[in-house]
Amino acid sequence: MAFPLANPDRLKLQHHAEEQRNLKPGHCNKFLHAVIDPAFLREPHGAQLLPKLAELGCKYELSAQPVPTTITFYRTVPAKLTAAGAMTDTIVHEPFAVHLLDGCTLAAYVRNRQLLAAVRSVKEALPGRRLSLLVFGLVAYCRVHRGCVGRRETEQALTEVQLYEDTSHQLLETDEQVGNFVAQLARAIAERPYKQQQLDKYSCDQVYLGNEKKGCVRVEGTAGLQQLYQAQLIKIPSVTLEIAEAIMGAYPTVRSLLEGFRAAGPADGPHLLANVSIRRAGGPITTANRRIGPELSRKIYSLYGSTNPKQEL
């Protein structure tokens, strides 16, 4: 007879389930807020920004930032049940920011060798945040003002910013590109807790056994070991499902196969599987049996028995 959970325990389980659901991609976007400096929305670069964020499901608000044409982000964490039974709301400021420069301003910074100092000043005004630099309309500006700045010195200045200040940059020419970049960054920031959770979950020895991706085998305790053994054999070139089932019929586990190779020794080990019969799937019983053969047996022996990491099958 199952006893119903006490009310506090049931609330904790419900809250945990809801918390996990809110972390998942698609649900997490609605908890991310983009704080946009009004100057970022000026034409022409800001025309597509708000529609792209709205399409993503991300909330946004207009507020003057410490540095003009800058976007910062924060996350609202849903109400959490404390040990005392109270519900609290929290705000988590994300360590990322986007700063936009137009082509004219960037060209002037590069000519005067001031880009590194300008980026450093922006980072000092936004402590604790990793900066992404958006450069809008540089190509169009240079077409109109030929010779205003050299390509080589521009690339050198942007490389210095990346090396010394760990600041990435994007050269964009249309408002749609600006909107797409900010939306992509917002999505990545929103999904960061979920991806970090997945990384922590699979950062142990079970990472290859418990992967959730298509085609992988989940192993919990001893459940799934047979499927994993079969999947491992099928990965070997020329080993079909029928051949894998024949090997598993003779040696049901990887351990038994390895012990068979060891018992056979270096002389007979490569031929251990050569005479194992293969039955065609769905074929009549009278069908002539095939055998694994010496060449494939040698390859399987080399795969499981070789201690040379550079040996080719």
UniProtKB/TrEMBL annotation:
<dbReference type="InterPro" id="IPR006166">
    <property type="entry name" value="ERCC4_domain"/>
</dbReference>
<dbReference type="GO" id="GO:0048476">
    <property type="term" value="C:Holliday junction resolvase complex"/>
</dbReference>
<dbReference type="GO" id="GO:0005634">
    <property type="term" value="C:nucleus"/>
</dbReference>
<dbReference type="GO" id="GO:0006281">
    <property type="term" value="P:DNA repair"/>
</dbReference>
<keyword id="KW-0540">Nuclease</keyword>
<keyword id="KW-0233">DNA recombination</keyword>
<keyword id="KW-0539">Nucleus</keyword>
<keyword id="KW-0255">Endonuclease</keyword>
<dbReference type="InterPro" id="IPR033310">
    <property type="entry name" value="Mms4/EME1/EME2"/>
</dbReference>
<keyword id="KW-0469">Meiosis</keyword>
<dbReference type="GO" id="GO:0004519">
    <property type="term" value="F:endonuclease activity"/>
</dbReference>
<keyword id="KW-0227">DNA damage</keyword>
<keyword id="KW-0460">Magnesium</keyword>
<dbReference type="InterPro" id="IPR043086">
    <property type="entry name" value="EME1_nucdom_sub1"/>
</dbReference>
<dbReference type="InterPro" id="IPR047524">
    <property type="entry name" value="XPF_nuclease_EME1_plant/arthr"/>
</dbReference>
<keyword id="KW-0378">Hydrolase</keyword>
<dbReference type="InterPro" id="IPR042530">
    <property type="entry name" value="EME1/EME2_C"/>
</dbReference>
<keyword id="KW-0234">DNA repair</keyword>
<dbReference type="GO" id="GO:0006310">
    <property type="term" value="P:DNA recombination"/>
</dbReference>
<dbReference type="InterPro" id="IPR043087">
    <property type="entry name" value="Eme1_nucdom_sub2"/>
</dbReference>
<keyword id="KW-0479">Metal-binding</keyword>
<dbReference type="Pfam" id="PF21292">
    <property type="entry name" value="EME1-MUS81_C"/>
</dbReference>
<dbReference type="GO" id="GO:0016787">
    <property type="term" value="F:hydrolase activity"/>
</dbReference>
<dbReference type="Pfam" id="PF02732">
    <property type="entry name" value="ERCC4"/>
</dbReference>
<comment type="similarity">
    <text>Belongs to the EME1/MMS4 family.</text>
</comment>
<feature type="domain" description="ERCC4">
    <location>
        <begin position="36"/>
        <end position="185"/>
    </location>
</feature>
<dbReference type="GO" id="GO:0051321">
    <property type="term" value="P:meiotic cell cycle"/>
</dbReference>
<protein>
    <submittedName>
        <fullName>AGAP002302-PA</fullName>
    </submittedName>
</protein>
<dbReference type="GO" id="GO:0003677">
    <property type="term" value="F:DNA binding"/>
</dbReference>
<dbReference type="GO" id="GO:0046872">
    <property type="term" value="F:metal ion binding"/>
</dbReference>
